[in-house]
Amino acid sequence: MLLKLQVYQKQNDYTSVGADWVPSLKPYILANQTIIATAHKIASPQTNDLVYQLRQHRKDKVILGGVLSNICVESHMRDLIENGFQTAVIYDATAAISEKDFQAAVTNYQAFSSATWSTLQAISQL
């Protein structure tokens, strides 16, 4: 059985005035199969409960995508690998401030992660 586990990092309490999830994603984020981790302080999950929550749900494989390829995504990838998780990075679901930074991040994904996929490859793996 495939359990859909999505991890979101909230910056503030989503019930605060003016803060909310993107309406089209809200039903998925607030679903029973979604984990909402506490916010990270810098660029990696070392200062939040992501690793703890993944272990609580007995997950050992993580698929990553997100903003700032060579900072946030790479930091999460490295920390999760150090904590024993298999990681796959969806490189075309990340962003960087320049093509040079993006290519450097992709090089690091390929060197360290368990897999480096395009979005289409990731979908085919699920």
From TrEMBL:
<dbReference type="InterPro" id="IPR036380">
    <property type="entry name" value="Isochorismatase-like_sf"/>
</dbReference>
<dbReference type="InterPro" id="IPR050272">
    <property type="entry name" value="Isochorismatase-like_hydrls"/>
</dbReference>
<comment type="similarity">
    <text>Belongs to the isochorismatase family.</text>
</comment>
<dbReference type="InterPro" id="IPR000868">
    <property type="entry name" value="Isochorismatase-like_dom"/>
</dbReference>
<dbReference type="Pfam" id="PF00857">
    <property type="entry name" value="Isochorismatase"/>
</dbReference>
<protein>
    <submittedName>
        <fullName>Isochorismatase family protein</fullName>
    </submittedName>
</protein>
<keyword id="KW-0378">Hydrolase</keyword>
<feature type="domain" description="Isochorismatase-like">
    <location>
        <begin position="15"/>
        <end position="110"/>
    </location>
</feature>
